[in-house]
Amino acid sequence: MDTHDTPEKRVADEEAIVAARAVAFDNDGGDIQQKAPHGMRPKGVEMKREMTKEDKELADAGYEHLKHQNNTGQKEGDAKLDGVDIHEHGLGFQELQTELDTTFDAKDPSISPGLSSEEAKARLSRNGPNILTPPKKKSALRKYYDCLMSMFNILLIIAGILEYILLGVDFKDNFPNTYLGGILIGVAFLNALIEFYQLQKSEAILASFLAMIPPSCRVVRDGTILTVPAAELVKGDIVLVRSGDKTPADLILFSANDLKVDNSSLTGESEPQERLARPAGSLMQRPVEAENLLFNSTLIVNGEGWGVVVRTGDHTLIGQIAALTGNETGKQSPLGAEIGHFVMMVSGIAILFAIVFFVVGITTAYKGKGEQTVTFAVSILVAFVPEGLPSVVTLLLSIAAKRMAAQNLTLLATDKTGTLTRNQMTVTNLWSGLRMFSAFQSNNDSEDTETFSIEAPGMREMVDIAALNSHVKFDKTDIPFEQRRILGDATETGLIRFAGKHISDYDAYQKQHPRAFEIPFNSSNKWALVISEKQHKTGLLTAYIKGAPERVLAKCSTYLKDGKEVPITDDFKAAYDEAYDYMASRGHRVIACAQKLLPGDVYDSDYEFSKNDAKYPSTEYCFCGLISLEDPPKHGVREAIGTLRLAGIKVMMVTGDHPKTAEAIARKINLILGDTKESLSKKSGRPIEEIYDDEIDAIVIHGDDIDSLQGWQWDQIFSKNEIVFARTSPQHKLEIVKRAQALGHIVGVTGDGVNDSPALKKADLGIAMNISGSDVSKEAANMILLDDNFASTVKGVAEGRQIFVNLKRSIQYTISHSTPEVIPQLLYVVVPLPLPLSAILILVIDLGFELFVALSFAWDKPETKDGLMRMLPRRPVNDHSIMSLKKRALRRTKTLLRDPETQEVIHPSKFSVFMTKLKAPFTRQFWEEALERSDDETLVDAKLLSYAYLEAGMIEFAGALAGYFVVFFKNGFTPGDLRRAQSALNAEPPVTYFTKDSPDFINSRGQRISGDKQVDALGQAQSIVYLSIFIIQCFNVFAVKAKFRFPFGKSIVGNYYNFAGIVAGACLGMFIIYTPPLHVVFGGSFHLSPLYWLIPVGFGVLLLVWSSIRVLLLRKGIEQSRVKDIKGLMMFPTMRTMSMRSKH
């Protein structure tokens, strides 16, 4: 008898029947035997492999940390939980209605009148909105201080303070340094101010986005179910919650159906807790233990329930325990980490050179003159540190933040339903009694497919199951069925729409056959059971079950044929397989239906059903048939996936659907183009066992196999270009993301349901849907697609890649002038020569025209139409990168301390970690890893540094130095004269030239040059050096853009902001050089002839020529990093998606 089956036996029987493999793996890595009873799951990958111990260790390396994660929740904050003021859970229904002044119907909650709109408004104005006071944030002053304490700013402040200390030592001689010290400190504070302003602006943008997507809930007002913002809930409101919802306030349940809630955020309990209605009130004293109470912000993970609001806003349990909400935390992005690393590197080099030049200067040029040497060292520091770069980076990123960015994805795991497809289910075919029926007009059905008729054998039973085994609700019940909006998931909605067409009075039919017991669908059972009061020959009750075909068939011993129950035979199984393939191969979702006429002598009207102790019928069902529903792909999805794949991003589907359905949809949308083992076997006529793994590039994995996969098997799966995971649970989705990340993938996850939220949270980029997405998925995501358009992810990737390129160009451009700033300082000391560029002018370069032009890169357009979107991700995951990652992980694993008994890892102390990091640079392993070849493209890499410092930098230096010597020569100074004049400082007695009080200088031609002419000559020389850097940098604006093409053409010069930046920089330069009052601070001379500008113009042209040669030299490497064309991609819209059968 069914009632004597134990839950363990039932699960064992079911698993035995459902043991067919989509992908069969062997736990020991040996030969694999594939099983396919009933043929219910397609065969897939069969891996045969002998592995050595070393192979297994290397394969498992990198996944070690996943095995040791502790998933058990801990109860915390008991004292706080005990101290909350909530007592309503102890009240009976009548007392509750009296206290809250509301009315509800516990027997039929859908007809509860709820509050009136006027009463709700009055209570809202009296008690305030249902929102939590946000957690305490950092003060504006503290945020500004954090911005100020960056490495560049600290260096500038220290340098500025040093100048003022020198002022105190010798005020008269060091007075000119007042300007330098003030400017340095001012720059640091200005940089921090810009960063602080943008930070505040970004927070405001984020807040506005959150305001655009307010959490909503279903509430009964004036007897109608409405969807209202959760903030408008008031005490006494009647609320409907379902699986996937976030509880909008503290609720007391008065009706619940298999409701489970995740309280882990409050109590630390890892397992979902069952919640029930208690007519007499709960006996539990502690609110957190009350089984009839739902708390604000907790997640409904299963079932549905009706509750009355008893607490809102700060009066809810979570509002009363403010400490549980925590304070804000931030995780640095990979791009932020790279920028930080670059800043530290440049700062380190600047400090090192400043110290070296200080030592060189005090022992040679300055001979013990400490104050002058310090000023000189500060000049070196100023020359090396690109003072404007922090502001440029901050402003560039803030401009970019207004556009979406997903710039470094290597793998995108996407849900199917509602993400790739429209989530609009339509019943297309029904199969019952070995006959196929079409419920949807299509030209693609086979000739023996009959048109659906309710009078055909088995069809009445199928419609009954669709209608009675359902959990949908309607927004209104006082209008015709066709005009109602159905509140429920897409599959249930499709089935009810279909059933409603063939039942004359849907509401009367439901009341005629009320439910005696039910078990709603959940992701572990994959079936739903309803027992209705529907009379038959042997009893009063009928059990209806629907769900995943393999699960439902596992419960059946007979099938319905011409109104009679016939035992299941091998012929039936073959016909079932054929029907299943017919439906699933078209990309349809397939639902199985079965019924059991419960005998009255066992299941009478007083029988107490219970799912906890298995007191419900679970076997010996009669299989009624299969229903297929089609959910067509969204418009633009196929082209979007094709574009992503051409961008080198691996796109894989992770769905709860059957493998056949998932594969068929995947083939429609460019996700699978090649053969799986099964399709290749059908094509070639070879047995699956004889097909080698390297012959195929597509793989379909069944969720049941995921838990037993070993490290090498995960590696083999992710080595494929076309991957589909089917029949997955939320835990599987999370595991897939973790495994992909362990191999070095930057993982994006798209999804809309509650089952996607753990994976969305874990992913590097979680992308949720706004319109169809659950509140929980939106909360877990980093990005929300407001229009639910999957194709928007392509725009995100393209924007992100362009932002990265623009940021890289800006940095490359900005640091190119470091070489012509630093080397003249070196010549000043070593040769020596009169100072070609003062520290003040260096600051004017860095913070003047450079700032304008560097910012203009933010508006750069792509160099070619599809250039960036045909390049590999900048951190590609390939065999070399995976092997490198695994070898490092294996080395780490072997050096970990472990408990000798339990083998648990003993985590080292913070001091031990610090000492290990300190010793690391002195080990061979450190340098092997640091110098290891990598295909990664970082923000600041060797190519960028080579171009900026050695290529463009040296050309700029040569141009500036040429102008310097020509101007001095025209003023009577040969290079030898300059050396002799500057060396006089170290003569006995010392003679100082190039000041107004200097003695006349006799040059090599015997000409006498007065002090005033010396000062003017130096002013002109320094001016031409400054202008040379500016003019050559103007050419460099276009040279840095040349990667795919030469630095000419519309795409290179099409950014008008570049020209605006150049004009602004030119105006600043002219103002500083040709305005006499400013010469006191900056130097310069208005006597400089514009003809001298032609010298740097010539070197600018030389830079463009070199840039063109560089394009030719690097072209081969760029071509190799381009993604090759993918054979079979369909880059045209899905014109007709309904009932198009896959060719495979």
TrEMBL record:
<dbReference type="InterPro" id="IPR044492">
    <property type="entry name" value="P_typ_ATPase_HD_dom"/>
</dbReference>
<protein>
    <submittedName>
        <fullName>Aminophospholipid-transporting P-type ATPase</fullName>
    </submittedName>
</protein>
<dbReference type="GO" id="GO:0005524">
    <property type="term" value="F:ATP binding"/>
</dbReference>
<dbReference type="InterPro" id="IPR059000">
    <property type="entry name" value="ATPase_P-type_domA"/>
</dbReference>
<feature type="transmembrane region" description="Helical">
    <location>
        <begin position="1094"/>
        <end position="1114"/>
    </location>
</feature>
<dbReference type="GO" id="GO:0005391">
    <property type="term" value="F:P-type sodium:potassium-exchanging transporter activity"/>
</dbReference>
<dbReference type="InterPro" id="IPR036412">
    <property type="entry name" value="HAD-like_sf"/>
</dbReference>
<feature type="domain" description="Cation-transporting P-type ATPase N-terminal">
    <location>
        <begin position="87"/>
        <end position="168"/>
    </location>
</feature>
<dbReference type="InterPro" id="IPR004014">
    <property type="entry name" value="ATPase_P-typ_cation-transptr_N"/>
</dbReference>
<feature type="transmembrane region" description="Helical">
    <location>
        <begin position="179"/>
        <end position="197"/>
    </location>
</feature>
<dbReference type="Pfam" id="PF00122">
    <property type="entry name" value="E1-E2_ATPase"/>
</dbReference>
<dbReference type="GO" id="GO:1902600">
    <property type="term" value="P:proton transmembrane transport"/>
</dbReference>
<dbReference type="InterPro" id="IPR018303">
    <property type="entry name" value="ATPase_P-typ_P_site"/>
</dbReference>
<feature type="transmembrane region" description="Helical">
    <location>
        <begin position="342"/>
        <end position="362"/>
    </location>
</feature>
<dbReference type="GO" id="GO:0016887">
    <property type="term" value="F:ATP hydrolysis activity"/>
</dbReference>
<keyword id="KW-0067">ATP-binding</keyword>
<keyword id="KW-1003">Cell membrane</keyword>
<keyword id="KW-1278">Translocase</keyword>
<feature type="transmembrane region" description="Helical">
    <location>
        <begin position="374"/>
        <end position="397"/>
    </location>
</feature>
<dbReference type="Pfam" id="PF00690">
    <property type="entry name" value="Cation_ATPase_N"/>
</dbReference>
<dbReference type="Pfam" id="PF13246">
    <property type="entry name" value="Cation_ATPase"/>
</dbReference>
<feature type="transmembrane region" description="Helical">
    <location>
        <begin position="1056"/>
        <end position="1074"/>
    </location>
</feature>
<dbReference type="GO" id="GO:0036376">
    <property type="term" value="P:sodium ion export across plasma membrane"/>
</dbReference>
<keyword id="KW-0547">Nucleotide-binding</keyword>
<keyword id="KW-1133">Transmembrane helix</keyword>
<dbReference type="GO" id="GO:0030007">
    <property type="term" value="P:intracellular potassium ion homeostasis"/>
</dbReference>
<dbReference type="Pfam" id="PF00689">
    <property type="entry name" value="Cation_ATPase_C"/>
</dbReference>
<feature type="transmembrane region" description="Helical">
    <location>
        <begin position="837"/>
        <end position="859"/>
    </location>
</feature>
<keyword id="KW-0472">Membrane</keyword>
<dbReference type="GO" id="GO:0005886">
    <property type="term" value="C:plasma membrane"/>
</dbReference>
<feature type="transmembrane region" description="Helical">
    <location>
        <begin position="1024"/>
        <end position="1044"/>
    </location>
</feature>
<dbReference type="GO" id="GO:1990573">
    <property type="term" value="P:potassium ion import across plasma membrane"/>
</dbReference>
<dbReference type="InterPro" id="IPR023214">
    <property type="entry name" value="HAD_sf"/>
</dbReference>
<feature type="region of interest" description="Disordered">
    <location>
        <begin position="28"/>
        <end position="48"/>
    </location>
</feature>
<dbReference type="InterPro" id="IPR006068">
    <property type="entry name" value="ATPase_P-typ_cation-transptr_C"/>
</dbReference>
<dbReference type="InterPro" id="IPR050510">
    <property type="entry name" value="Cation_transp_ATPase_P-type"/>
</dbReference>
<dbReference type="GO" id="GO:0006883">
    <property type="term" value="P:intracellular sodium ion homeostasis"/>
</dbReference>
<feature type="region of interest" description="Disordered">
    <location>
        <begin position="108"/>
        <end position="131"/>
    </location>
</feature>
<dbReference type="InterPro" id="IPR023298">
    <property type="entry name" value="ATPase_P-typ_TM_dom_sf"/>
</dbReference>
<feature type="transmembrane region" description="Helical">
    <location>
        <begin position="144"/>
        <end position="167"/>
    </location>
</feature>
<feature type="transmembrane region" description="Helical">
    <location>
        <begin position="947"/>
        <end position="969"/>
    </location>
</feature>
<dbReference type="InterPro" id="IPR023299">
    <property type="entry name" value="ATPase_P-typ_cyto_dom_N"/>
</dbReference>
